[in-house]
């Protein structure tokens, strides 16, 4: 794409860079004509959209090689490698390929089922057998293997049925006799056991159906456009919104680890797409929902006794569809042609393709003229000239790819291109990042069950983005750096909950990323302007707050003084708030923010009261001078000392990542923390980060007592910068509780109770699905 950009004449680049949403039809058609005359552009479209150049199509030869490799690894007991080979082979094997008179895919499922059985993954084995049987209903070995897995799972009735089927399809007499013997043993065992059968349980989320009964109203605001507000008083932790995505796509970084439909972490028995090698799914349910065909459509007819009716090959649609019917559009189908563009173009462009195809198919029924009319806001006019050129180019490439590979019946002209450019702009402003909670100590490979869980007691949690989606109704929620609602996801469903009491008429606003306490006001404004092209007008950025004042502050050089020293950038930023929003901050804001703190807040109140004394919209604060006693600090020298100290903390961070922490690294970092503490303000965010790094490092060298103290110090600071019951504190308490448990410290009970309350506030009844680790902590702490 970059090379292509260089070939566009400067005059066209300038015209595109200066375009507004009004003249997109003419700018995009000018660029289109220019590109169509470039052989490099034609070549690019051929590479992306022509099936002859496809790298994402099925390939029998490669599948057979991988199968062979898997068999060899299995024989030498290299099970992880065998699993990798079989799964890869399944991904590339054509559904109609035959190997030694058997459907190749069915054989591969069976081989993988045998491997799973060998390593004790019984439900995975059972599911792979089912898949082999649904392709090849008379596959005696698959019935037999399934019978064995059912025996080990205690499902004797099913096992008897499986062995009977295996016996009837087995051709050799010896084989039949062998199965008969096993069958008799099972029948005996069945009589003598009362063991409960283990039920296969696919994607069961208990409280998926929590109703959302609150009515919200759409409001219009002068500074943020449309927004959502409450129509009644809403208690904390209430569900205010629930929605299925209009369109969704997995992020490139998660393609190998998460299901391309529901975005849950893939299990070891991944299910491939039936037509191309790009997506992996966690189940046939997801594979079919995405637009794939059921495996039973590829039934192997070789040697089949057609009359046999197999009652066990059916699919289970356990997730959302039964209880909560959702509109389902086969969103991968038009990409599923083995061509390269869905794998190569950026995720938001492939998402735009999904929306175009979906809305065009719906357009036939609604007879709208717009190619795609989501009715969402966008910020095309505010973006940079480079971004405008990029949007133009991607819109042209996407429409050409859709037309070339999928036969999308749409003239590529100024009108369709301008609508596509606006669509991509809407996606950039309105799409939500779907996140999943990840325990940092999760083993990255699929052999989760094989690794020890003994080290889990020093775990911590983080949120990782896995997908990007458009939720049409939720796009109307505005951003606040001090949000009063919180969004999270179960499978593809978006849930939004209040995190505090919200009174009637109050705007409901979530955070698009940055929050007060996480970074200072200038950083938040920069992030939102860069990513979403708007200048934030939320209360966090328009009213003074303690976090923004102390987050990057220095301490007083006078050891007896707990005062605050600010830099000019912070003072300027805070003064700007007052200039732009000359409303007096309310005194009680500071007080309520500090309620419940048992911390020494004298210095913070100093800052607050000083800030409140502003006159003519300016703060009377001198950079470099203590706000309490007026003593001067040399800020240049302080910066130098901090940078040097921080280099030791950075070294420690690297050592933590490589899990190789030497005594010297730890000692240097401890000394560096001393310098940070004596130079920076007690509530400076960098001190919290350094404390947290030391806590992690001490955990790794198993000095849990030191780890606990550093972890507590870090939490103390964060509780001041955020709300004490903010979700960030919940994550930190997970770390503290796990360290306390490692020390048999009874205080772990308080920590787990506290984190339980915080998570319940953010996730309501879904807490155990989102943070299953907290259940484990609670159980151990209360034991
Ligand atoms: C996802 S949309 C929210 C709904 C939007 N207000 C509308 O009218 O459709 C995001 C856009 O809303 C506006 N917006 C949201 N939060 C804002 C804030 N805190 N300050 C200023 N503008 C905001 C910006 O224009 C942003 O690009």
Automatic annotation (TrEMBL):
Keywords per UniProt: TPR repeat
Keyword Transmembrane: no
InterPro entries: SET_dom, SET_dom_sf, TPR-like_helical_dom_sf, TPR_rpt
Domain named SET: residues: 214-513
TPR repeat ranges per the UniProt record: 63-96, 140-173
SMART domains per the UniProt record, alphabetical: TPR (SM00028)
Protein name, UniProt field: SET domain-containing protein
Source organism of this protein record: Populus trichocarpa (Western balsam poplar)
